[in-house]
Design goal:
The chain is an alpha/beta fold and 413 residues long. It is built from 13 helices and 14 strands. Strand 4 and strand 5 form a beta hairpin. Pathway: Carbohydrate acid metabolism; D-glucarate degradation; 2,5-dioxopentanoate from D-glucarate: step 1/2.
Length: 413
């Protein structure tokens, strides 16, 4: 089997409301690039990458010069063709490699008639548990969807629990002053009773703020405190003074950083992202290292549609040390580009696809529709806030949003 064609299509899929985060906002939609690799036997493998547009599509067109004629089973050689670590000092293609690896694994699974998890050693569970992902949200143009106050946040947590059965709840912070977000987090923890909770301010606090916040939540039923500060040493300082696990998807996203963390531990839980690490296989490898050294593992979300969600499910199915419920933005989406629509949650879990390859196929009509929506709306600046156009976050940050600001931003629809 040889690769004969690579195609990339950028889409934009609507969200229930604009999602706020420490560095800006998702402006009411996700922009993703769907990758297709066609083999000489007519099979098509699927991949997905965050962001997109003409630049992403051009990058994947350029990959034809590397991969047309390549055997998709030779994944290690593809890794060095696309993301040689020394060449990548000048041209980092880690996320490009990830999307291509997804598609090649999908091809191989289809060719052998087995799901991707069988290629990775076989599944250990049929379903992967997920945490709710709570965001502060801007209102839509009609005023719906806003989450700004503790009361609204509690309502969001209860609604998600009722709809999807979550028993672990994650709040994305770093938007408002830590004291206000502490009030919000404690309100959520009180509202969900015996359920687990976790908090993530996207590493925008000072070490002193991280320690203060961490000590103020030690009495709660925490899974962990995720990325309170930036950098391994700052995480290490925080960990010395806070009595709960620290987690990261920011300061350990590669094997050099993982080695440094093993030698002098700063982080207890590694959040493995199939995109950030360059594919599913590197995540499985990293999970094995974490198993050896007694580090916790969870699956990270970077704003997925159904194709990447499938990679997260296959990853979660095969690693024995999946210590915590996975993250997913998925329930904030209004739609998807895969056949059958969005994969359903049941009792806070999503079933691992059983079909060959990744187990999901494209809905061509929806792909075309959301590609046209992307051409109509264009990209959005992920690292900008629509109501604070001149603003940017610093690290550590001291430029917090005002929780009393109830304006509605003008977000293109």
């Amino acid at each position: 089997m040889k690769i004969v064609e690579i195609r990339a299509t950028t889409v934009t899929v609507p969200l229930e409301a604009p999602l706020r985060h420490a560095n800006g906002c998702h402006w009411g939609r996700f922009v993703r690039t769907i990758v297709e690799i066609e083999a000489d036997n007519g099979l098509i493998g699927l991949g997905e990458m965050g962001g997109g547009g003409e630049s992403a599509e051009a990058v994947f067109r350029a990959m034809k010069g590397y991969l047309v004629g390549h055997d998709p089973a030779r994944l290690e050689e593809m890794r060095f063709k696309i993301a040689n670590p020394t060449a990548s000092l000048y041209n980092n293609r880690t996320q490009v490699l990830a999307a291509l690896e997804f598609a090649c694994l999908d091809l191989l699974g289809q060719a052998f008639g087995v799901p991707v998890h069988d290629l990775l050693g076989g599944k250990l569970q049929d379903e992967v548990p997920f945490a709710s992902y709570l965001f502060f949200r801007y209102p839509n143009a009609d005023g719906s969807g806003e989450v700004r106050t503790p009361t609204q946040l509690v309502e969001q947590a209860k609604a998600l629990k009722k709809a999807h059965g979550f028993t672990s709840h994650k709040l994305k912070g770093g938007v408002f002053h830590p004291d206000y977000e502490l009030e919000c987090y404690r309100a959520v923890a009180a509202a969900v009773g015996e359920d687990r909770v976790r908090f993530d301010p996207n590493a925008v606090w000072s070490t002193e703020q991280g320690i203060r916040f961490g000590q103020a939540i030690e009495d709660l039923n925490n899974d962990y405190l995720e990325d309170p500060v930036f950098g391994l040493h700052a995480m290490r300082r925080t960990r010395e003074k806070v009595r709960m696990p620290l987690a990261t998807n920011t300061v350990v996203v590669g094997f050099e950083q993982l080695a440094a963390n093993v030698l002098d531990t700063a982080v207890d839980v590694i959040l493995l992202d199939t995109t950030f690490w360059g594919g599913i296989r590197p995540c499985v490898k990293a999970a094995g290292i974490c198993e050896t050294f007694g580090l916790g593992v969870a699956v990270h979300s970077s704003g997925e549609l159904g194709v990447q969600l499938a990679t997260m499910l296959h990853l979660g199915a095969v690693i024995p040390n999946l210590s915590f419920a996975a993250d997913a933005h998925y329930h904030h989406l209004r739609d998807d580009v895969i056949q059958g629509g969005p994969l359903p949650y049941r009792n806070g879990r999503i079933r691992v696809p059983a079909g060959p390859g990744l187990g999901v196929r494209l809905d061509r009509e929806k792909l075309a529709h959301y590609a046209e929506e992307y051409r109509r709306l264009g990209s959005y600046p992920y690292d900008k806030d629509p109501l604070r156009p001149a603003w940017c976050a610093t690290v550590p940050n001291d430029r917090w949003a005002d929780p009393k600001d109830d304006r509605t931003p003008e977000v293109p629809r």
